[in-house]
TrEMBL record:
Pfam family, one: Acyl-CoA_dh_1
InterPro entries, per database record: Acyl-CoA_dehydrogenase (IPR050741), Acyl-CoA_DH_CS (IPR006089), Acyl-CoA_Oxase/DH_mid-dom (IPR006091), Acyl-CoA_Oxase/DH_mid-dom_sf (IPR046373), AcylCo_DH-like_C (IPR036250), AcylCo_DH/oxidase_C (IPR009075), AcylCoA_DH/ox_N (IPR013786), AcylCoA_DH/ox_N_sf (IPR037069)
Cytochrome b5 heme-binding domain sequence ranges: 3-82
Swiss-Prot/TrEMBL cofactor(s): FAD
Record lineage: Eukaryota, Fungi, Dikarya, Basidiomycota, Agaricomycotina
Residues of the signal peptide: none
Name of protein: Acyl-CoA dehydrogenase/oxidase
Organism: Collybia nuda
């Protein structure tokens, strides 16, 4: 980095088209050659308040910090202004944000929490660093080229046992070194998993986030919990080693939230099943190796089979409003022979296998949804503070402060409700969770995704045109606003979940309850 010192007067002399310097936060840039190629145009740089001047305020109202971190722009820096010091710093990799409400209270200085222990804090620090070192750079590249997340990321996730941890606490973690050993398998609980969900959401690349094992998150548990030992152990090992991917195929063009309406058909034959049918909107389908598939049987019941990619199995991408890095696909099964040992659970007990997965899946999605919302709150607080309108920051407008108030209140309520549910999960066995928490989880997911959509809409209003622009200041807002409906649909649409929760409550109404 150049360290030559210039006085302000020296910098001011370079204020013409072919001899053009500007200062941004004490750093002097020679834009003489770059000015012609500047994406914002030449004329703005020749303005008398910019050319040869300190353009810090105007620079930060038009560019994200990362512009200054790109090698091609770092090269333009020729020195610093004598006697001035850099004032604006990006958050260091892995560090916590100091912006109010950018972190949940348990990570905010001065607050307390009954839920989190030291090992959660150590875990959060290490996991955020992993996300920022490994996932974010890959996410940016893959969102650009639409390819599946890089194998190197899966390898690192496998090395740290992140793939295993994403399935939550349980026996599958026994004997594993988690995150380099900073948390013991017996300590690992649902709060660690909540941390993972919230940290990964900060990537703000929703397709990539699903591409990194979203299918495994929902497709592997039925294999782990209901698979016959030989097939289960083989697949779990391959997946935990980062070598293979699973997806869950239980939605069709014919049946969405209504899984009982599946038409994909499994015919019982000697030695196994023959499967024919289709599945739609399947996350990771285009690159999955194993498909956990819900099929209708001749008896009118349902069976869940794990089908390996092979003859008769075709996948093709579906264009969605997020990136193809999620591998969302349409699957066709044409007379696919499936060995009997690939049956998960009993021959007609498939519905139970599928339903057993839903609470954990919906809770996990809620964790991600709240993490994403919080990131947007931070973006909006920063933007509203730095953006000048009519000579004052945006925050001087009461209507903007009112929108921020709504966003903050929503994300704080969602986080607190979710933490309470997570605490309950830590203290309940599977049966108790199903009994007490199915309704709560359905409600919290509905609440998270509804509030997320409100926050997305408000964020676009705060960012204006930038909130619908894929590059520049509002790029995360644009992305969030475009992809936020995924959470509201995957794992059960909002109305369906609300209805489920109310029906659960009605079942528990005391018969003699009267006003
Ligand atoms: C170190 C000096 C600068 C560099 C490296 C630089 C680089 C860039 C880049 C990469 C963009 C595209 C941003 C994006 O879409 O993400 C951009 C846009 C722009 N820049 Fe600069 N810039 C510099 C200084 C300035 C200054 C001093 C001004 C003052 C007016 C300015 C005005 C603009 C404008 C108006 C845009 C278009 C913003 C928009 O589309 O919303 N730039 N600049």
């Amino acid at each position: 980095m150049a360290s030559k010192q210039f006085t302000k007067d020296e910098v001011a002399k370079h204020n013409k088209q072919d001899d053009l310097w500007v200062t941004v936060d004490s750093k002097v840039f020679d834009l003489s050659k770059f000015a012609q190629m500047h994406p914002g145009g030449l004329s703005v740089l020749l303005d008398e308040e910019v050319a040869g001047q300190d353009a810090t305020a105007i620079f930060f109202s038009l560019h994200r910090y990362e512009v200054l971190q790109k090698p091609q722009y770092i090269r333009l820096q020729i020195g610093v202004v004598a006697g001035e010091e850099q004032q604006i710093f990006p958050r260091e990799v892995g560090a916590l944000s100091k912006v109010p409400y950018a972190e949940p209270t348990w990570l905010t200085q001065g607050y307390y929490s009954p839920y989190y222990k030291d090992h959660h804090r150590r875990f959060q620090t290490a996991f955020r660093k992993f996300v920022e070192d490994w996932m974010i750079p890959d996410a940016h590249a893959r969102e650009e080229d639409g390819k599946r997340p890089s194998q190197s990321v899966f390898d690192e996730m496998a090395r740290l046992n992140i793939i295993a941890m994403r399935l939550g606490p349980g026996k599958h973690l026994e004997g594993r070194e988690l995150m380099g050993g900073i948390v013991k398998p017996e300590e690992f609980d649902y709060f660690h998993e909540l941390i993972m969900g919230q940290e990964v959401a900060r990537i703000n690349a929703r397709g990539y986030y699903d591409g990194c094992g979203g299918g495994t998150y929902i497709g592997l548990p039925p294999i782990l919990n209901f698979g016959k030992p030989a097939i289960r152990d083989k697949i779990v090992r391959e997946v935990f080693e980062g070598k293979k991917l699973v997806c869950l195929a239980i939605t069709e063009a014919f049946a969405g939230s209504d899984v009982a309406g599946l038409k994909c058909h499994a015919k019982r034959v000697d030695g196994g099943w023959v499967v024919t049918g289709t599945q739609k909107w399947i996350t990771n389908a285009t690159f999955a190796d194993y498909f956990t598939v819900g099929c209708r049987t001749d008896q009118g019941g349902m069976v869940v089979l794990v089908i390996e990619r092979g003859p008769g199995v075709e996948t093709k991408p579906i264009k969605t409003s997020y990136s193809t890095t999620a591998g969302t696909g349409y699957i066709t099964f044409e007379n696919v022979h499936v060995p009997y040992e690939n049956t998960l659970g009993s021959d007609n007990g498939g519905l139970q296998v599928i339903l057993s997965n839903f609470n954990h899946e919906r809770w996990g999605m809620s964790c991600g949804s709240v993490g994403g919302q919080r990131y947007i709150v931070e973006e909006c607080l920063k933007w509203a503070t730095q953006r000048q309108v009519f000579g004052k920051p945006l925050t001087s407008q009461a209507v903007i402060r009112s929108k921020l108030a709504g966003m903050i209140a929503r994300v704080e309520s969602a986080q607190n409700w979710l933490e309470n549910i997570t605490y309950q999960m830590n203290h309940m066995n599977y049966k108790e969770q199903a009994n007490h928490l199915a309704g709560q989880i359905a409600f919290v997911k509905k609440f998270c995704t509804e509030t997320a959509q409100e926050t997305a809409r408000d964020a676009v209003q705060i960012f204006g045109g930038r909130g619908i622009t894929k590059t520049g200041m509002g790029r995360f807002i644009e992305h969030y606003h475009r992809t936020v409906p995924f959470d509201a649909v995957l794992g059960g649409a909002e109305d369906v979940l609300g209805d489920l929760g109310v029906r659960q409550a009605l079942r528990k109404m005391p018969k003699n309850a009267r006003l």
